[in-house]
Design brief:
Order of helices and strands of chain A: HEHHEEH
Mean pLDDT of chain A: 87
Strand content of chain B: 25-35%
Low-confidence stretches of chain A: 1-6
Radius of gyration of chain A: 16 Å
Largest interface: A-B, 22 and 24 residues
CATH class of the largest domain in chain B: Mainly Beta
Distance between the termini of chain B: 88 Å
Largest sheet of chain B: 5 strands, antiparallel
Strand order of the largest sheet of chain B: 1-2-3-7-6
Helix content of chain A: 55-70%
Number of domains of chain B: 2
Number of helices of chain A: 4
Shape of chain B: rod-shaped
CATH topology of the largest domain in chain B: Immunoglobulin-like
CATH superfamily of chain A: Winged helix-like DNA-binding domain superfamily/Winged helix DNA-binding domain
Structural class of chain A: alpha+beta
Low-confidence stretches of chain B: none
Strand order of the largest sheet of chain A: 1-3-2
CATH topology of chain A: Arc Repressor Mutant, subunit A
Distance between the termini of chain A: 27 Å
Oligomer: heterodimer
Largest sheet of chain A: 3 strands, antiparallel
Strand content of chain A: 5-15%
CATH architecture of the largest domain in chain B: Sandwich
Structural class of chain B: alpha+beta
Shape of chain A: elongated
Number of strands of chain B: 9
C-alpha cells in the first residue's frame, strides 16, 4: 500500500493526547504504530502543527526531565482540546460515512 | 545533513523569535533527533548512520522553521530588544552612579587636595569607614572672641573613584577633645556630590586640651582617630 501523508494531523494529535501526555517523538512513534506504518510524515513538520495548537489553546506544553537527564517537552490536552477532539471526531465520522455511502451506491449501480 | 546542520537551518528561519523562544524550539527538535537516533542505535545502526538518518527524517528544515516562525508574534522580539537595551542603559547608569563621569575627577581630587587658605595647616589623615574613606586634610586654630578652638577640614569619598560615597557619612560621626564629646553633627553642611562630600567643623577647646579625635560609628562598629594638637599646630 502506498504510504499516505497525514492530512488530519491535528485530529490525530488530539486523539493521541486523549489518553496521556506525550512528547513529539513519541507521537511519531505512536502514529506509525497505531496506523501500522501507513502514517508517516516528515517528522519536523509535526512541530509547526504542535506549536499552532499550543497557541490555539487546544494543547498545553511543559518540560520534564527524564531520569536519564534528558529534558523533553510534553504536550497535554486542555479542556478546550477535549471539546475540539469531540467536534473533529464527529466531523470526521460524518465525512467517512459520506464517503462510504457514495462508494456503496457506486457498487450498487 | 547532520543534527547541527539541521538545527542551524531551522534556527536561520527563526529570526523573529526571542532568544528564549529560539532556544526552546532548538531544545525540542534536538531532543527529537536524539530520541530517534537512540532508537536507531538500539536497532543496530552505527552511530554516524543513526544520527544522519534521524536528521534526514526530520524533512526540510526551512519548511519547519518557517512554519514555526509564522506562529510567533514579533512584538515579543521587540519587547526583548527594548528590555535588553534598557538593561544595558541601567547597568551603565549603575556603573556611573547616576552622576555621570564628572564626579570621578572630584573623587580623585579629594584624595590629594590641600587647604587653600594659608592659615590652615595641611594634614593627610585617612580613615576607612566601610567602603568609604574619610580624609582630614587641614586644621587651624580659630578664636572668635567668645571661644577658642580648632577647625577641621574633612572630605569623604568611595575607595573606588567611580563609586558613590555614603551621603550621610557625617551623621555617623562625633568629635571629641581629650575624650570628651564636643561636637556631634547630623550633616556636613559642605559641598558634595554623589562621589565626594566636604565638611568643615569647629571644635571648641578648653585650656589644656591636647588632642582632638574623630569618631565614626556605624552598625556597632566604631573607628576613631586622634590628632595630637601639639604636633600639628604651631
Amino acid at each position: 500500500m502506498k504510504k499516505q501523508s497525514i492530512e488530519h494531523t491535528q485530529l490525530l494529535v488530539l486523539s493521541l493526547l486523549a489518553s496521556r501526555d506525550i512528547y513529539g517523538y513519541e507521537m511519531i512513534v505512536e502514529l506509525a504504530r497505531r496506523s501500522q506504518n501507513v502514517f508517516e510524515m516528515k517528522e519536523g513538520t509535526l512541530y509547526p502543527v504542535l506549536h499552532a495548537m499550543e497557541k490555539a489553546g487546544t494543547v498545553a506544553a511543559y518540560e520534564q526531565t527524564a531520569p536519564t537527564g534528558r529534558t523533553r517537552k510534553y504536550y497535554r490536552l486542555t479542556q478546550k482540546g477535549r471539546g475540539c477532539l469531540a467536534d473533529e471526531k464527529a466531523a470526521w465520522a460524518r465525512y467517512a460515512d459520506a464517503v462510504n455511502a457514495v462508494l456503496r451506491t457506486e457498487a450498487l449501480s | 545533513m547532520n543534527r547541527e546542520e539541521y538545527l542551524n537551518a531551522v534556527a536561520a528561519e527563526l529570526r523573529g523569535l526571542t532568544s528564549y523562544e529560539r532556544a526552546a524550539v532548538r531544545r525540542e527538535l534536538e531532543g527529537h533527533i536524539e530520541d530517534h537516533a537512540e532508537a536507531l542505535r538500539a536497532h543496530g545502526y552505527p552511530e554516524d548512520e543513526a544520527e544522519a538518518r534521524a536528521a534526514e527524517r526530520m524533512g526540510d528544515p526551512a519548511e519547519t522553521g518557517r512554519g514555526i516562525a509564522r506562529l510567533y508574534h514579533p512584538a515579543w522580539l521587540w519587547a526583548e530588544r527594548v528590555a535588553g537595551a534598557l538593561i544595558a542603559v541601567m547597568a551603565l547608569e549603575l556603573f556611573l552612579g547616576f552622576g555621570g563621569l564628572g564626579g570621578v575627577a572630584g573623587s580623585v581630587y579629594a584624595r590629594f587636595c590641600k587647604p587653600d587658605d594659608a592659615h590652615v595647616t595641611a594634614l593627610d589623615e585617612r580613615m576607612e569607614i566601610g567602603n568609604d574613606v574619610v580624609r582630614l586634610y587641614g586644621i587651624n586654630r580659630y578664636s572668635d572672641g567668645q571661644e577658642d578652638g580648632v577647625e577641621l577640614w574633612l572630605c569623604a569619598y568611595d575607595r573606588v573613584p567611580t563609586g558613590v560615597v555614603a551621603q550621610n557619612i557625617w551623621g555617623w560621626s562625633a568629635v571629641t577633645a581629650n575624650g570628651e564629646e564636643r561636637v556631634r553633627y547630623a550633616d556636613g553642611g559642605g559641598w558634595s556630590n554623589a562621589r565626594v562630600t566636604y565638611c568643615h567643623i569647629k571644635v571648641p577647646l578648653e585650656p589644656g586640651d591636647k588632642t582632638v579625635a574623630l569618631r565614626f560609628e556605624r552598625f556597632g562598629e566604631a573607628v576613631e582617630r586622634a590628632v595630637d594638637l601639639t604636633e600639628v599646630l604651631p
